[in-house]
């Protein structure tokens, strides 16, 4: 049986007041890098991506696979989750080695990195990252987030009380400061958030909290765009779009 760590490893960014910080889930079950990647993509977002300026807090019992890899001996290191070249690295002394090791392990004691053969078996970290680069309508995006993981694995995940993830509630300046760089990585110019207009009221789907400070166009449903988005290169607090449009979206793990 897969042994999942009881502690959620939070990734603390400089934006420490945001509830949208991604988490890592540690699995103490040795797998090859490819096996770990497949598992994380099925049950979370992907193998863990580590960004500059972010610090892991927490502990795990063994060295772990992260999402860094390269295709050939001479190619550049990139992240499994985004397929982007790694601009930040945290190699241990003397690493990486100039050999055929193409996958990366993070040491349990100091979180430094070491390249390894991809068919080696290690425990692993899955990322609960927020941006999903799939194009879905708002309702499809909401369902995608809510089906990621159940609070109680013995009950259906789509019960209203049993989903651990939701479309992101981007309430505060800290939330927006965290979410906008993620939205900037999207393949669409807008990304869905959890903001929704129903029954004459704007609210966040994560907890049903009403939103009062909307602009005049959004009041009383004057706009025909009833779902919330973040727009690339925009600084507005709230923006809306036709809910049937297909966009990337932001999920978050509920506190």
Automatic annotation (TrEMBL):
Keywords: Disulfide bond, Signal. Pfam families: Lectin_C. Residues 24-127, 131-252 form the C-type lectin domain. The keyword Ion transport does not apply. The keyword Transmembrane helix does not apply. Transmembrane segments: none annotated. InterPro entries: C-type_lectin-like, C-type_lectin-like/link_sf, C-type_lectin_CS, CTDL_fold. Residues 1-17 form the signal peptide. This is Macrophage mannose receptor 1-like. It comes from Gymnodraco acuticeps. The gene is LOC117534515.
């Amino acid at each position: 049986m897969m042994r999942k760590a009881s502690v959620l490893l939070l990734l603390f960014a400089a934006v420490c007041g945001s509830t949208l910080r991604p988490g890592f889930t540690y699995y103490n079950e040795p797998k090859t890098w490819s096996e770990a990647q497949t598992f994380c993509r099925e049950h979370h977002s992907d193998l863990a991506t580590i960004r500059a300026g972010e610090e892991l807090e927490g502990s795990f019992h063994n060295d772990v696979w992260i999402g860094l890899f390269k295709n050939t001996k001479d190619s550049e290191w990139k992240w499994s989750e985004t397929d982007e070249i790694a601009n930040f690295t945290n190699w241990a002394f003397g690493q990486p080695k100039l050999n055929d090791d193409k996958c990366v392990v993070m040491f349990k004691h100091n979180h430094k990195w070491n390249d390894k053969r991809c068919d080696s078996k290690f425990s692993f970290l899955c990322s609960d990252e927020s941006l999903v680069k799939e194009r879905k309508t708002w309702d499809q995006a909401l369902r995608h987030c809510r089906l990621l993981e159940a609070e109680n694995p013995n009950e259906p995940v789509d019960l209203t009380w049993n989903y651990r993830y939701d479309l992101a509630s981007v309430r505060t300046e800290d939330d927006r400061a965290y979410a906008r760089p993620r939205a900037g990585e999207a393949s669409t110019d807008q990304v869905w958030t959890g903001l929704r207009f129903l029954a004459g009221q704007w609210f966040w789907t994560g907890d049903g909290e009403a939103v009062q400070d909307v602009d005049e166009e959004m009041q009383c449903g004057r706009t025909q765009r009833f779902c919330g988005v973040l727009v690339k290169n925009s600084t507005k607090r709230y923006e809306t779009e036709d809910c049937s449009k297909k966009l990337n979206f932001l999920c978050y793990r509920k506190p």
